[in-house]
Each structure stands twice: as structure tokens, then as C-alpha cells.
């Protein structure tokens, strides 16, 4: 997957922040960590350790699961990755920081996580909170259901299949 200029600059800035964190913690900046971090920063949406491992191994087949896991732990500790747990123990990661607030639709069949934004839902959540005397500080909305393919709709597609096809299009 090739990054555009803005994405590449954003990834470079995030990698620089990661290097600063490693230096502060007196940890080494290694080529393997850089490959993992850059693959993560370039991934679209949410990514599991297994999915990230596939991306990383396309660049260096010798990088192992434990190295990816430990690097993601470091990225989470320094605030560049956010852990999201969907469904029954499904752990995913997304780039943290200056991303716009979004909510999630999760397919209980294929485990695909689809991000969405809806201003009306945001207004209703604020209205409900105020009606109970609350001032919202943060929230997360996760809606669980079945994607069109999982529902058995004739010709229905799975957003996960579409996302995989789109991400592999740039690598061929």
C-alpha cells in the first residue's frame, strides 16, 4: 500500500514521536520496530496483531508475533495506538491522538469493525446525558449486528472483504 504525501508526512511525524518515547525510556530504535510502527500507521481503520503481522511480514518475513505484540504495547504506552476490544475478546488497535471521534458497527459473524460518524447520534447522546444531569467527558458507541453477506442477502457484500481487496490492490 502506497501512502500519499500527507499520510507519509503524518507517519513520519508519528514515527518521530515513537523514537522520542523510546529514547526517553532508554530503549533501542530498531529497523523491526520501525517496520511495525510504519505498517501500523499506514493501516486503515482497526487492525489486529494477526492482521498487522501479515502487513509486517510482507516487508520482513523474519519478524515474529512477539515482536509485533511488544511493539504495539510500546505504541500504546506512548499514546500513539489505542486498544479497542470488540465482541468476545477481539482486540484491535487504531492510531490514537488527533483522529476524529467515531463510533463502530461490528459484524458478529465476520468480526469486521466499520467506523462511522453521525452528528445526529452525537446530539442525541448529549441530550440524553444532560437529561440525567450528566456532562459527557467521553463515550464509545458499539453497535453489533450482521453485515449484508453474513445476513445471507443475495449479492450482499462483506465490508471486510472489500477492505482487504482495497488494501491489496496497491501491493500488486
Q: What do these coordinates show?
A:
- The protein is α+β, with helices and mostly antiparallel strands and 172 residues long.
- The chain has two domains: 1-99, Winged helix-like DNA-binding domain superfamily/Winged helix DNA-binding domain (Arc Repressor Mutant, subunit A, Orthogonal Bundle); 101-172, Ferric-uptake regulator, C-terminal dimerisarion domain (Dna Ligase, domain 1), CATH 3.30.1490.
- The protein is 45% helix and 15% strand.
- The protein has helices at residues 5-24, 31-42, 49-57, 65-77, 119-131, 159-169; strands spanning 81-86, 90-95, 103-107, 113-116, 142-145.
- A three-stranded mixed β-sheet has the order 4-3-5, with no helix packed on it.
- β1 and β2 form a beta hairpin.
- The longest helix is centred in the N-terminal third of the chain and has 20 residues, at 5-24.
- It is flat and about 50 Å long.
- The termini are close together.
- The model is unreliable at 1-6 (pLDDT under 50).
